[in-house]
Prior knowledge:
The chain is an alpha+beta fold. It has helices at 5-24, 36-39, 74-86, and strands at residues 43-52, 55-59, 92-101, 104-111, 114-116.
Amino acid sequence: MPASVLPAVQVAATAALVAWMITGFTRLPGRWLRWKMFCRATFTIVTLTGTKNGQTEPVSVYDHLSPGSFLLGPPQLQAIINYLIASGRYDRIDGHGRVLSATGETPLEVTDSHVVR
Length: 117
């Protein structure tokens, strides 16, 4: 076996590995980040407004999550909204946003304190 074959095989294997890693992080139609770790996660990007006695103010649901938490799906969002309404902090919460998951990106609405997908 010639001495130049081994470096050529190493370069080819390295190039194949790099190409495989790059395609693992590219977008597919209808999907965002197809890496398996991200495909199982659900992120909610939402802008909410709380109303109390006719006064409105922005609501950050992330203030009510455990420290270090950032994954928030629609059921968890609804639970936090229910808590804020039950605690008397707001009479009503409305807003809009997006849900990012393995199935792609879908719109999200919060109407009269209810999450609607």
